[in-house]
Amino acid sequence: MPITPKQIADQLSLEELRELVPQLQKITRKYKRSESIQKSLFDISELASSINELSSLYPAIHNIVAGFMSAQNFFVAFYDEEKEIIDFVYFVDEFDEQVVSQISADDLKNSLTGYILRTGNHLFLTQETYREQTADISVKDLGAHPVDWIGVPLKRGSQVIGAMVVQSYDESIRYSQADLEILLFVSQHIVNCVDRVKSRELTEKSIRQSTKQLRQINEELQEEISERQKIESLQQALFEISELSASVEGNMDDFYSAIHDTLSRLIGAPNCYVATIDTQKQTLQFPYYKDEVQSKIEPRPMGLGLTEYVIRHGRAELIDNTNAHQLYESNELSLDLVESIHEKVNSWIGSPLIIDGDICGVIAVQSYGKQKQYNHKDLEFLRFVSHHIAVALGRKRSSEAIQAYNQRLAEEVKERTEELNSTNLFLQKQIEERLQAQQQLEYDAQHDSLTGLANRVLFNSRLELALASKQRYRESNFAVIFIDLDRFKQINDSLGHMAGDQFLKEVASRISSCIRGHDLLARLGGDEFVVLFDNYDSPIDVEEISSRIIQSIAKPFKIENRDMYSGASIGIAYIESGYQTADEVLRDADAAMYQAKSLGRGRYIVFDKTMREKLLEEMEIESEFRKILKTRAFESYTQPVLNLASGELIYQECYVRWKHPKIGKIKRDQYWQIAEQCGLTVEMDRFMLSKACEILQNWQLDTATDNKQISINLSIHHLTQTSLAKQLIEQVYEAGVDPKQLVIEFDENALNRRSQFFLPAIKILKRAGITLVLDNFGSGLASLSYLYSYPFDYVKVDHYFVKTLPRSERNLKLIQSVLSISGHLKFKLIAEGIDTEEQYQALVNVGCELGQGKYVQTANKIEFNEIKNKVVNS
Questions:
Q1: Any idea where the domains of the chain sit in the sequence?
Q2: Is 583 a catalytic residue?
Q3: Which is the catalytic residue, given 148, 179, 448, 527?
């Protein structure tokens, strides 16, 4: 039975108990210090998991150190070996004030801190031994002389990365050997804490940077959307103005108001007016005037005003504070007007109204104050608007002239009733003139106002007649060609609409010079032209004319003293008796034209029924693909990758085949393209991955195939985001498969599209143990960059290079070159598509170790029917 402390105390005398008191006090202090150290370590561990920034960490460490020893003066310094500086990340001293946080290591090499960083030894200096110890280690005083000074190194493994120092300037505060031991013990935990917080800080910084980049991309997208919306609004406004100018009737005030509303919506036009010149050109009239400062304006004589300046120079102008004074000095504007512009902060743009080459007036908008200042884009828009207003004014004047003439005619008839012969002659003349006017109106209704060619109405009418003739007379030959121009929008946007109009006129002239006199050329709108061919002897005639048109338009255009280049794509539709409407013919010619554009532009394509049949076939294939993917009815096969010398199996590639019930075998590239067009790439990837996992699960039941690898081809979808790569790995784990047994092949052409975004996801797959293969190497444009940047385990040479061996010395040297760098970049080369002994021997001779193909499989007498059956049945 153990003896209790009470029994021991009863047996000891009072003197003996007094002797035990110091020992008990010492033990108590020891336990308290141990408890303090444990608490400090716990606090440091808490800091490592709770603090995200180093700037908050060091004050917290200071508080912890101060918890088990006096530490009013405390600093932490780290040594940056690359920059050769000592970074005082935290410094608290009651005498020395730290101004520069980073000091050259050279300047501090003879200091106490430099000694610790240089040697990795700790220092414990006391007031009594300070000078003796500093002399022994050859260091200099660089600050105030302390009473006691303790410095311990901060080490990462065996490398000294920094120092932690406490010092006392108060003789009542002295340090002991126990303080040194505690500080040494705690220092290593502090290094671990700093590393964890620094890692977390870098991670959060990376996240913030990624978030910032995503936000910036989003802002750019929003800006692009806003710009496109502005362009759509502008196009709609231009269409409205064109409609207004084409339909203007008697009430010009309504026309001007509608123009004003459109200008206000697009460029902001609170103040707008239209000025016209009288016949003597000495007075300005204002048929339309809306202004927030001056409600009404009277006709006035010509002077040194803004309107007169535009009339004198005959061009659109932007006038505001920046150039008004200069125009005054050039005697273009009056002083009162310039002072008014400066006072009201005017911004004014005006454009001349030109009818039949003569300036008849000006349209202008202006703003007051700094809220709206016009720019050159606004000026270009107003210049375009002025053209349509001038057209409307011209039509209005013509209409008024006709009305006035008819009125005078009626008066003449009434006055000269007795002069019947003279009146009849006069009336006959007027009737002819009116017939000419009517014919002109009919002509305008059926012809393009810009080029003078037939418009869509006339062309469709003639085409309907041709279809009727073809139905009645089968031997009649008719054809339609659809012409689309290249780079018209670029010319129109860069040089302006006037230059675009000039370009279209020149194109119309060139096409007219290529066709026959009785062929009908029409402009459907924009840069689309069509030609109706009548009574040709052979289709070769139509195709030769099409070639001449392409060659003619390919020649340079001289526009505004600049050489501009365009091109043409042509679709040809020969009119057969099966056509019922003009729209059907134009539809087929248009389809052939788009086929020509898709094949590289600058050519003609003759429409045939296979184009429509191909479209229907693609739709049928897409529908069947969706069904077969949903039912997982693909046929699955494997093909081995072998060591060419020993015949050792490296891994097996799993692939699927699809045999359409009507079309037959569908190529792998074709159904992968269908999957991408249908948005089913992810579903196809999941099918391939599940198929590979099923094969590996079957192999796990067979010890003979244990630890073998299976490969699949995946799209780049799982590389666009790291989260998708992690989901792929989770799917493998959920299937109970070791990722090390999985090989994933990525096509080089697919990686070329956005290769800079895929590296993080590839690294995640690599760290999970998945073997990575770069497939179809050499078929893309940036092949070598992948060898240096991506951690591929294998690189599979595109079968095209192997197919040409051994006759292609150039391709053989390319394979040799890749083999020479494979050892340095730690990947192995696989030759794909080895189908002949000659190809096999050429590859072995240059040192290629791994290969895949029919010949390799046959030569090594490997039978994979059983594996094939397992795959199919699974």
A1: 16-204, 248-400, 447-607, 621-873
A2: no
A3: 527
